[in-house]
Amino acid sequence: MNGGLIKGWCPGAHRPMAAEDGLILRIRPPGGRLSSAQARGLADLARAHGQGTLSLTTRANVQMRGIAPADHAAILARLAALGLLDADAAAEQARNIAVTPFWRAGDGTLELATALADGLANLCGLPAKFGFMVDTGPAPVLGGTSADIRFERATDGTLLLRPDGATQGQPVQTAEAVARALALAGWFIASGGVKDGRGRMRTHLATGHTPPPGLAGTTPSAAALPEPLPGPCAAGVLAAFAFGELQAETLDALARLSGEIRLTPWRMLLLPGLATLPPLPGLIADPASPLPRVFACTGAPGCGQALGETRAWAAGLASHLPPGMCVHVSGCAKGCAHPGPADVTLTATTAGFSLIRNGAVSAAPEMEGLDPESLLRHPERIFGIC
C-alpha cells in the first residue's frame, strides 16, 4: 500500500495521502448522498480508526484523517460493504462528479450522474483534478464550484452541456448527454489540454482552443443562485460546521433523524424534508453565523507542508468578519481548504503570513511577513473596518 501514497496529491480511499498525524482518506459517495446506514457506518469508522471527526470538502466528499497505515485494509473492506468504494484507484479518480443537492425525484439528475459515472470508467487520459458537474435541479446552484464540464439547464429547462469557461452551452437530449460529455472530454485531451498530467478546461479555452461545432455552445444557461446559508431551505434544512469538520457522534445523530443525507460543496449537509434540527455538537444552523464563511486547512502541526498554524486564529478572525465577506487562512501555497478566490486570503510563509485581497493563494500578495497575533489585535488591517 505504501507505494500508492503520494505526498501532496488529492487523496482517495484506495490511494490515501500521508500527513503528520496519519493517513488522509477521501470518500466519494455516489451521487453526493449517504443513506442513514452509510452515514452511521462512516461515523463508526471515524470513531474506530480515525480521530473521531470527519471533514466535508468543497467537492461534496468526506474525508477521514489520522488513519494508521495498518488499518487501511480494514477500512477499505468496511467502505466496500457500505457501498462507498470504487473498484480501484483509477475508477475512483475518474468519478470526479459534483451533483446538485437540490435535485428532485424524477428530474433526471441522479440518473444522469449515474450514467456519467459509468461512462467515465472507460475514459482514460484526463488530469486528476478534471471534474464534471450535474447541476440540473430546479435552478443552478453550483456556479461557484469548480468543474471542467458542466450539465446545466437553460431558462426554459432545456438540458445544456457547457465546458467551463464558455458563456454558452450546447442543448442535448438526455439519451445523448453522456456521450456528448465524453466526446467533449476526448476533444480536450486530443487538442492538447493535458500537459504533464495536468490541465483545466477553462485555461484551455482561454488560450484560444475552441470546441468543434458539434460541441460548441449556442444557448446561455440560467443564472446560478447565490450560495445558500445554513438553516431551513425549500428542500429541507442545511447544517454547517466550522471548517467543515463534524464529530462522528453528530453525523450519527443526523443519520438517525433522516433516511438520507446529501453532501454539498459548501461544507454543509442537506437533510431533505426536515424543517429544524436539534442542537448537536458543532452544528451551525444559524444563517447569520460567520463561521461558514471562514476557510482554513488543518495547518501545522497536523500537516507537514504547512508553514504555520491556521485554525485557532482563523476562528478568532470570525468574530470580526464583516457580513457577506469570506476569509481563507491557508497553511501553505496549495490552498487546499479553498482553491478559489476569497475576499481575504492569508497564506503562511516562512516569513509570516501574506495577505491577498479578492484572490486565491496564487495571486500576488498586498502585504507580506504579517504576524497573526498582531492581525488579531488589529482586524481592520485585514478587513478594512473603519
Q: What structural class do the secondary elements suggest?
A: alpha+beta
- CATH T-level topology of the largest domain: Sulfite Reductase Hemoprotein, domain 2
Distance between the termini: 54 Å
- The proportion of strand residues reads 15-25%
Question: Rounded to an integer, what's the Rg over CA atoms?
Answer: 21 Å
Which architecture of the largest domain does the CATH hierarchy give at level 2?
Alpha-Beta Complex
Indicate the CATH class of the largest domain: Alpha Beta
Give the mean pLDDT.
Answer: 92
The total strand number stands at 21
Instruction: Describe the largest sheet.
Output: 6 strands, antiparallel
Query: Which percent range fits the helix content?
Result: 10-25%
Unreliable residue stretches: 1-7
Shape: globular
CATH-level-4 superfamily name of the largest domain: Sulfite Reductase Hemoprotein,Domain 2
Task: Please count the helical segments.
Answer: 10
Number of domains: 3
Notable features of this structure?
Sulfite Reductase Hemoprotein, domain 2, 5-stranded antiparallel beta sheet, 10 helices, 3 domains, alpha+beta, 386 residues, Sulfite Reductase Hemoprotein, domain 1, globular, disordered N terminus, 6-stranded antiparallel beta sheet
Q: Would you kindly provide a written description of the structure presented here, covering whatever features stand out?
A:
With 386 residues, this protein is of the alpha+beta class. The protein has three domains: 2-91 and 227-284, Sulfite Reductase Hemoprotein, domain 2, CATH 3.90.480; 103-138 and 145-215, no CATH class; 291-383, 2-Layer Sandwich (Sulfite Reductase Hemoprotein, domain 1), CATH 3.30.413. Helices cover 24% and strands 23% of the residues. It has ten helices and 21 strands. It has helices spanning 36-49, 72-81, 89-94, 109-120, 174-190, 201-206, 248-257, 311-318, 372-377, 380-383, and strands at 17-19, 22-27, 33-35, 53-56, 62-67, 97-99, 132-134, 149-153, 159-163, 170-171, 231-233, 236-241, 245-247, 260-263, 268-272, 283-284, 294-296, 327-330, 342-349, 352-359, 367-370. Strands 3, 11, 12, 14, 15 and 16 form a six-stranded antiparallel sheet that branches. α1 (36-49) runs antiparallel to α7 and α4 runs parallel beside α5. The longest helix has 17 residues, at 174-190. The chain is globular, with a radius of gyration of 21 Å. Mean pLDDT is 92; it is low at 1-7.
